[in-house]
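Example 3.2
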Amino acid sequence: MKVFLKVFAISFIIFVLVFSVGVMAFNTLMKEDSADFDEVVARVEEDDHYDKDVEEIDELLRLVQESNRINFIVLGLDDTRSDMMMFVSFDPDEKRMDGISIPRDTYYPRQGYTGPGKKKINAAHGDHGANGVKTVVTDILFDVPVDYYITMTYQGVGAIVNSLGGVPVHISKPMIYDDPYDNPPLHINFAAGNHVLKGPDAVKFLRYRQPNPGSGALDRHGDIGRIDAQQEFIQSAISKAMGPRLPSVAGQAFRHVRTDIDLQDVMRLATAAVGMDMANVQIATLPGEASYQGGVSYYFHDPEATRDRLMEIYKGSTEE
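Structure, written as tokens:
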């Protein structure tokens, strides 16, 4: 399964905030109405993973109500599944952006969907559309509102990377992995050292989780290690994106991205984001741990630590 370039999720929002490419291009290429899904998303109350301390949540929601932050959910789509999901919060007053990567295997059981795969959060998009995913993420994040969605397709990732002219990375150990059953077959083979990766190779770099058995190559130990590598990748990519290549990168992004953001909101946010320092972009992973249930691997998020992270974001904490 394909995991998308989280770095470009953040970069694209920065493009939207800092560089608007015109009314006609926006309305024609980017703005969409979410697909017509009538079914309401309802979580199954079957465990204690969602216990919420009412007093603490009241304090969080008070901070939310007093804040001018604008929140997005960014989805990287592989067919109908959202194999990349990131909550991004922009503070126009402090010119700050905070992200929380949500692992695709995050456990989220829904009423009427009993299959093991359907209990993973990445299945929600195919059943409920992008607006349904906004509802799911709002529930996981203690009713912190998600104002807008932004979706990217796998086919567009390579074009966006190429418009950057490639992204420099350092690979500490060889990366060797083959999956002949993927469609098309996946073959990853990078030597240790410095590389400038373009479209398809950058996608391979960020999809990589574990090596071929016995190869002695780099092991990222699953999705969480892969997310860590992607987050380290972001500074290099944003540095290039925010330079002279910005118009080209923004143009590619607008061709391959869909959103429910209105043009007037883009212009308002663009004005607020002028002068934003890239040091004020912080990304974390949804707190939790992976474990098995019924023989299936899920990622169970930690509600208390998630709440603490949201409190840090809304209090303006710069700690990671």
